[in-house]
User: Fold this.
Amino acid sequence: MTQATRALIDLSALQHNLRRVRELAPASRVMAIIKADAYGHGGVRVARALADADGFGVARLEEAIALREAGIRQPITLLAGFLEADELPAIAQHRLSAVVHHMGQIDILEHMPPPSPISVWLKIDSGMHRLGFAPDQARAAWQRLRACAGVADIRLMTHLANADERGDGATARQVACFNEAVAGLPGERAIANSAGIVAWPDSRRDWVRPGIMLYGVSPFPATTGAQEGLRPAMTLHSRLIAVHALRKGDAVGYGGAWVCPQAMPVGVVAIGYGDGYPRHAAPGTPVLVNGARAPLIGRVSMDMLCVDLRAQPDARIGDPVVLWGADLPVEEIARHAGAIPYELLCGVARRVQSVAVESGAVEDVRGAR
Assistant:
């Protein structure tokens, strides 16, 4: 039985977005960030679709092992590194690279080295103050790593905190801080995230690390993916499961917070916060019914939400509904919900059927019944 609610993942859109990264950073290798199940798009599926990427980045060891077991052969980096020495054998066995961001990790590598040398990324805290060595510790950390028998290549990286603000001087200061901290040290460099790739050319180094832009979403709060030359990869799709003719004064949904201003048709869509649709999406948040906008009304329930069908009096049970996708940017829905696109994409629930499609199949769900 076909589920009413599905997340349709457009593989050609993913590939288009990778090409866009290469257009912006033609001299850089690309570490495609596919952590958190590829931002809700399916880690193995996305890795296979992005076979032209030079490497992948994930947050956790189990994510990397799943990719290796699926046959992914490109370099894979553990962005959070390792916490315990007992992780090192698996890191070495699966040929993974690890980010090293504090002295405790170097202590482990010195006293309990992996069975075979691993490549590491030495992370410098250039101003985000989350993970990384202070700039004045960078050289001492590099020297200790260089002396470790369990360490092969040493690469150098940092992470940008404010690159999504195009006019913010913090990014230029971070780049300058990183440059000074690692001046004279050998090793490939990586600075740019998605926002850096698009807006900060000086952050494009030997490697770039695109994340959200690979999925067709803008890394900037004021634009959409399409405006940045990207194509949304996910279409969250459902259907009408009921259509009611309600009277003026009828209350809709929990708490009766939304009241019909006149006699009107109301549609019930088979999706709710149990599927990952944001519970705090405000009345007026748009969905697409048969390809045309219809506003959400009432509160989002666990399995359902209601929409105003006054502009679509001919809508019927079974008609397609798009919650976000190419014609309804997830960035817009996030703004209505007081959220960010990352949160919405990563929050799509496992009970939602996720289906890989090509662009033509995505188009099919937008048209009329």
Summary: The CA atoms of residues 136 and 181 lie 7 Å apart. The chain has twelve helices and 18 strands. The chain has a mean pLDDT of 96.
